[in-house]
Amino acid sequence: MLFETHAWVTLDNAVAIYNVYSDVLVATIPVGIAPAFPRRTPDGTKVLVPNQGSNTVSVLCTSANRVLATIPVGLAPTAVAIDPTSTTAYVTNSGSGTVSVISIPTDTVVSTITVGTNPVDVTIARDGSRVYVSNAGSNSVSVINPVTNTVIATIPVGTAPNGLAVSLDNSRLFVVNSGSNDVSVINTANNTLISTIPVGSNPQKIAANPVNPIFMYVTNFSSNSVSVISTTGLNVVTTVPVGLNPLGIDVTGDGTQVWVANEGDSSISIINTSTNTIAAALPTSFPPRGVTVGRVGSALSPSEPIDLTDPYQLEEITESVCIIVEKVYASCVQRECFPAFTITLPTGVPPFTFISMTFATGVIVPGSIVITPIPSRPNFSRVQFTIQIPYTLTLRDSTGALFTLTGNLPDINKDIVMYFPPTRPEFDFNLRVETRTEVLTSPVFTSTTIQIAIGSFVITKVTGVVQLLVPAFGFCPEPPACEEFPVIPQNPCLNFFDPTLTPFPSDFFPPQLDNC
Predict the structure, then answer these.
(1) Radius of gyration over alpha carbons of the chain, in Å?
(2) Does pTM top 0.85 for this prediction?
(3) How far is the C-alpha of 79 from the C-alpha of 493, rounded, in Å?
(4) Which pairs count as long-range contacts for 314-321, CB under 8 Å and 24+ apart, including other chains?
(5) pLDDT tens digits for 175-209?
(6) Chain segment 402-419, per-residue pLDDT in tens
(7) Given pLDDT bands bounded at 50, 70 and 90, which one contains residue 379?
(8) What pLDDT, on the 0 to 100 scale, is given for residue 421?
(9) Which of 384, 388, 385 has its CA nearest to residue 363?
(10) Do 213 and 168 form a contact (C-beta atoms < 8 A)?
(11) Is the Cα torsion angle 494, 498, 500, 506 positive or negative in sign?
């Protein structure tokens, strides 16, 4: 099957799992007492659920919908944040004023950090460089260095700070203040207050749109609404009515939906982000509290095989056949931009005119590939390599002469994480790249150079030659006879004497009847 996107919603001692795009309840998993605000790992393989009433964290397997482990933590855990590598989790213990640091591969607490009074939420910078904890009882945010697991700064904010979110560019921290009905905007470079945004009554949690960095969404518990905040204007652009007493909130990975857990009327509101209206409302069996949304499994991992027993399969399939193909095991996309790529002008008579610039597909520089397995992430490796993209630039000088210049764009050095499962020594994985490169702006000429802004889309793939069993429609039908290209014979009379090539003219005699 293809990858699914699920929502994990905490209920009364259980987690309900919904298919995001069909709104169907997939499963319900028992966890600890009074589960609070869950969090899915970035690689999509696990969901961590803090159980406020049993002082534990339940670790769920997203593919099997079961509890993998239960980890004891501090008193009354409420929220979880997970680093970008999916190896370390931070859990706020609201009853003990601490943060438990969990090793996800080993399901153990490796450190405990003392923060402020009544810590209720935690988030991590997009690059993993800082961990932020809201202390509701201290009216502050603790800043943690994840390398040393120590508090390096304390930021005063509004009254009873709660939900936290970092902007996509890591430059700002948004802090929801439940007691003062506003959101503090913090400059993360110097931990100072930039602005305060008024929202609804008793705001709780906040979520950023992962696709559109302009918008964030805040649940207003006592106003029964969600405030949509502009991260550029630092103001509320609209307010969306939802169910009663909204608490937890999250945004789908494609940025199209906002899922809101309404504790007051046991429902889930689903907001369409393009219209900021309610697209659907789902009833829940118990009052929901927290929600986390995302793909089941990593986008870098392969999908499950197609189920040929699916009722939607084509009836015309007649057999299964084994073929040898180059299978794509993993792929990912990135963008590269050269805002001021400069090329020296040829010897000609200025001024020059830009005619065209074309690009060949990028190639990996031989010998540049370095693949290093990541011990904490089985089947994944750090992949380093260099890409070169050839170009051809065509110019015309003032005399009309054309000049063609060739070369390569600056080397593109990649350092990414890819799915590379272990295999027998005789099996070879291949690393491939595909590129599409475009000129972004009109060229700028100087007396000796031309300057061009260039953008390139890059797809990196891990492939391997395998035998695949696939459904088939049988053998292809016999093809028609090939059409020969007509060759005019040297003797023109040969065509003339062939009645099929030169039939007798139908208008040899004039017509015998009047025709309209």
Answers:
(1) 31
(2) no
(3) 93
(4) 314/471, 316/473, 317/471, 317/472, 317/473, 318/472, 318/473, 318/474, 319/471, 319/472, 319/474, 320/469, 320/470, 320/471, 320/472, 321/469, 321/470, 321/472
(5) 999 999 999 999 999 999 999 999 999 999 999 99
(6) 999 999 999 999 999 988
(7) confident
(8) 80
(9) 388
(10) yes
(11) positive
Nearest to 284 by CA among 15, 6, 91, 50: 15
Q: Please, how many CA atoms are within 13 Å of residue 349, restricted to the half-sphere of its CB?
A: 4
CA-CA-CA-CA torsion for 29, 33, 37, 38, nearest 10 degrees? -40
CB atoms within 10 A of CB 427: 10
Count of CB atoms within 10 A of residue 132's CB? 25
Phi-psi region of 276 (alpha: psi -120 to 50; beta: other; left: phi over 0): left
Residue 67: burial class (beta carbons within 10 Å; 0-12, 13-18, 19+): middle
CA dihedral 371, 375, 377, 380 (to 10 degrees): 20
Task: Judge whether 423 and 379 are in contact, CB under 8 Å.
Answer: no
Would you say the C-alpha torsion 354, 355, 361, 364 has a positive or negative sign? Answer: negative
Alpha carbon distances (Å) from 128 to 24, 170, 332 = 34, 10, 20
The SS3 call for residue 481 is: coil
Which residue in this structure is represented by tokens 């057999």? Answer: 319
For 281-317, the pLDDT digits (tens) are: 999 999 999 999 998 875 544 444 444 444 433 444 5
Residue partners of 515: CB distance under 8 A and separation at least 6: none
d(CA 204, CA 337): 39
Which of 127, 229, 225 is closest to 175 using CA atoms? 229
Mean of pLDDT values over 372-393: 92
Residue 330 · residue 300 · CB < 8 Å = yes
CA–CA distance, 341 with 8 (Å, rounded to integer): 47
For residue 343, the number of C-alpha atoms closer than 13 Å in the C-beta half-sphere is 26
8 A C-beta contact, residue 468 and residue 373: no
